[in-house]
Amino acid sequence: MKIGVDRLRQEHSLPPEGYKALLTCRDPDVLSYLYAQAREVALANFGNNIYIRGLIEISNCCRNNCYYCGIRKGNIQVERYRLSRETILDCCRQGYKLGFRTFVLQGGEDAAQSSDWIEGTVAAIRGEFPDCAITLSLGEKSREEYERFFHAGANRYLLRHETYNKEHYRQLHPAEMRQDTRLQCLQWLKEIGYQTGTGIMVGSPGQTTEHLIEDIRFIERFSPQMIGIGPFIPHPNTPFTGSPSGSIEQTLRLLSIFRLMHPQALIPATTALATLAADGRERGILAGANVVMPNLSPQEVRGKYELYNNKASLGAEAAEGLAALDQQLSAISYRIVTDRGDFGKYKL
Length: 348
Ligand code: SF4
Description:
With 348 residues, the chain is α/β, with parallel strands linked by helices. The chain has helices at residues 2-11, 16-24, 28-46, 85-98, 115-128, 143-152, 166-172, 179-192, 209-222, 248-261, 271-276, 280-286, 299-302, 322-330; strands at residues 49-52, 54-59, 102-107, 133-137, 156-158, 195-202, 226-231, 291-292, 335-337.
């Protein structure tokens, strides 16, 4: 099966049965080989540099009710908050001093943070931090809204498709949410010129190997600049409480597959990985990830942005824990860099 790994590294693609063989492989030698090949490709493209992104969770209010999400509209246990523009700018100022050159504004689809407000906030960050990248992760918007944010200074947009299979999408989302809309949004983002990120939850309820193959083939065609993959972790106040978490091994396997498919993609070792295992972040990096996203949100709101149970936001997951993060990374011979870390052709 190592031949399949070599072929993926050389051709960046496999037939569906090749992906199936890798996704169901139980041979530890083959899996070690897969991770090692992905790691080599990441090292060849980025050296031992790990890009850091400062994550600012700007609102935990959302109009949607995704069945897997802890801040879904239907969860009445959540204490809701939204950050003011000035608080967000303060987070950026603090992050800039710590060395961050990318700010990621993430939030639910919150009508109170209007397009005018988002546009103004992006413009304010752009004005004060002209050398930084601004990433948005604010869900589905109209093409016109995406254009306005882009022209105000946003560079990147993260919007996970979660699953490419329509029936599976229906199992994870209420009827009013349409997968076609999500895919249309991704297309617009790319056309507008954003460095665009998509991705999936691994091990979400109802997910099969066939679904994962559909996801891989979609990502192969779409060729995003950023790929976010994290294990599903159930939240107690959702319909999926009691469902098992996704596996770290399957997440790492997919991470390596995506690294071999897209050698230059920006692939984070996600917080969900670090939440499931103390060494999850390091294992993600050793399987080919090259980005980490420490939390820059104000301390007092971090516990309120709980997408899944016990989400890590302390220690090396926190922006102020950068020294601890650097130490953890140097133990595996990697280092934090403060470069903006743009995708290939988008470099300044
Ligand atoms: S996953 Fe995103 S869109 Fe869905 S409920 Fe949670 S915050 Fe809202």
